[in-house]
Amino acid sequence: MLDADGASAGVLCSLTDISEQRRLEDQVKFVHDSRAGFLHVLAHELRNPLAPVMAAATLLQRRPGAPGMDRMAGVIARQTRKLARFVDDLLEGSRIEQAGDTPVFKRASNLDEVLENACDVVGCVLSERGQTLKLRIPAQGQVRGAILWCDPERLAQALGGALLNASQFSDDGAAISLAVAVDGVFLELLVSDHGIGVEEGELPLLFQPFRKFAPHPARAESGAGLGLAVARSVSRAHGGTVSADSAGRGQGLRLKFVLPVVLDATSA
């Protein structure tokens, strides 16, 4: 600044806080990097199940009725289920990003059927890894046969995703626990494992779509990072919540669903 005689009278400085701009730029970069990584995983995951399916199908065509037919048919069934589950997760991830929550179609449903369908989602994976699922239901109480007002397919999908997550981050031969309880209108589901665990600061990130963490050291990275995002979306669509808790690395993970979906437990 100059005075009337043209001499310097002072300096005017203007400062602009760009912290918000930097934060947004970092978010954009994270999304871009996530998408790039996702496309890589997509190509990898779709190719891996298809290779053994195609090989087994070729052998079945060349040698109809040959010994080992059942084993090769089993390979086809397992790998196609894996591929179908992955594609379903992709579609679900797209819905979550566009609409925020998963659409649900509620109807009266039996809790036992929901649990059975969820266990079917993870059954083959547990068998391949020699893992066991321990279902914990109180001997006393109104749990077995309880009637729910929910979308049974979506609820089984959410619970199955939590069970798959527990399997993915647990040792081969490990035990995974599913505790089931009914408290008034609330259905409480607790999935617990003794796997690699999660640091406290990472817990809020578990439910973000496409967010992936370090894999189990004895297992290749798999999936698109959508299982728990779908679980949260389905829980919200039912008016409930799902939360995560871990004591840290090597201490396992607990996922708890609290869902106000119990319509009638008197018949349990």
Tell me the layout of helices and strands:
Elements (H helix, E strand, L loop, with lengths): L18 H44 L6 H31 L7 E4 H19 L2 E5 L10 E4 L1 H17 L6 E9 L2 E7 L34 H11 L3 E5 L8 E6 L2 E3 L4
Parallel strand pairs: 2-4
Antiparallel strand pairs: 1-3, 3-8, 4-5, 5-7, 6-7
Keywords: Phosphoprotein
Protein name: histidine kinase
Organism: Massilia aurea
Can you offer a commentary on this structure?
This protein has 268 residues and is an alpha+beta fold. It has two domains: 20-99, Helix Hairpins (Orthogonal Bundle), CATH 1.10.287; 107-264, Histidine kinase-like ATPase, C-terminal domain (Heat Shock Protein 90, 2-Layer Sandwich), CATH 3.30.565.10. The protein is 46% helix and 16% strand. The protein is built from five helices and eight strands. The protein has helices at residues 19-62, 69-99, 111-129, 152-168, 227-237, and strands at 107-110, 132-136, 147-150, 175-183, 186-192, 241-245, 254-259, 262-264. The strands form two sheets. It has a five-stranded mixed sheet, with helices on one face. Strands 1-3-8 form a three-stranded antiparallel sheet. Helix 2 (69-99) packs across helix 5 (227-237) and helix 3 (111-129) packs parallel to helix 4 (152-168). Residues 1-30 form the PAC domain. It catalyses: ATP + protein L-histidine = ADP + protein N-phospho-L-histidine.
